[in-house]
Structure of Phosphoglycolate phosphatase:
Amino acid sequence: MTLTAALFDLDGTLLDTIPDLSQAANAMRQDLGLATVPQATIASYVGKGTENLVMRTLANNPTGTIPSQDDIRQGLTLFNRHYHACNGDSAVLYPGALEGLQAFKDAGYKLAIVTNKPTEFTLPLLERSGIAAFFDCVVCGDTCEQKKPQPMPFLHACSLLGVQPGQALAIGDSINDALAARAAGIPVLAVPYGYNEGMDVRDLPVDDIVTSIAEAAHWAANRKTEYQEP
Ligand SMILES: O=C(O)COP(=O)(O)O
Ligand SMILES: [Mg+2]
């Protein structure tokens, strides 16, 4: 089937958001009297949405106490306040991301963001990073009833774009993207520079690993030629 749409994960795929996420998560910890933790530790908590990030960040405590629902709610209020104050301050596009988005656009693809990041952070971040105009639709962590690794957000993006899952290509950095895309019947590529909850991308159930979004555009162009009906 000819590919006509590309569905992009955001954190760890297009943008390196860890410095800002880590600043907000550590500011929340400090508010609660907890010591700060390294950026790499916070990076391993990113991928299943903000609430999960807060839960994992609070579970990292000296006594190993599991945070209660009230702890998570309180942490989330603090985290959200801090993240709104720094969202995008240090976020940068990965090398090849802009060129790759442009290449997909030039090849006539419809483009979507499918992220587990909540809408209130995603939309301002896309604007601030200068890439908002590339996307025909944006599906966030609170858009559907379920997040990645469930297939619903990818299927919702396909329906908004008016394409079949087999006509779309997902590109992400983590197990959540891989499992969600596979469950939706969407071919999926992984980039190796993202977060993947601290795990090795080579173990992901994906169609291929590409070094950048620019390379993903080449991959799609070649596959398109390879699989095109005569
Ligand atoms: O918010 C997260 O946990 C991760 O967001 P992502 O789906 O863009 O990687
Ligand atoms: Mg990601």
The beta strands are 5-8, 15-16, 92-93, 110-114, 137-139, 168-172, 188-190, 208-209. Residues 224-230 have pLDDT under 50 and may be disordered. The domain at 5-16+91-227 is CATH 3.40.50.1000 (Rossmann fold).
